[in-house]
Design goal:
- It comes from Nocardia jiangxiensis.
- This is Macrocin-O-methyltransferase (TylF).
- By secondary structure, the protein is an alpha+beta fold.
- It has one domain.
- It is 28% helix and 24% strand.
- It contains two helices and three strands; from the N terminus they run αβαββ.
- The protein has a three-stranded antiparallel sheet with strand order 1-3-2, covered by helices on one side.
- A hairpin with a 5-residue loop joins strand 2 and strand 3.
- The radius of gyration is 11 Å and the shape is globular.
- The protein starts with 9 loop residues before the first helix and ends with a strand.
């Protein structure tokens, strides 16, 4: 899933879609590095193991969060 475009909506979108993602699904969210404030809640949520993802920021231009559905 590419979750890109509106920082204020990315967390809401993922929360809606996550229950429908199978284990191993990949979620890519761009610009989390350059817009840290706008993505802070999203990054905290996706990195919390209780939400079923393993996530890391990769050093692409702008900072990209790559998340894998594990539960």
């Amino acid at each position: 899933m590419l979750n890109d475009g509106f920082p204020d909506a990315v967390l809401d979108v993922l929360r809606l879609v996550a229950p429908h993602l199978r284990t191993g699904a990949v979620v890519i969210t761009d610009n989390v590095g350059v817009m840290r404030g706008g993505y802070a809640d999203y990054v905290s949520w996706v990195r919390d193991p209780a939400n079923g993802f393993v996530s890391v920021r990769v050093p692409y231009k702008g900072g990209t969060e790559v998340s894998i559905r594990v539960a």
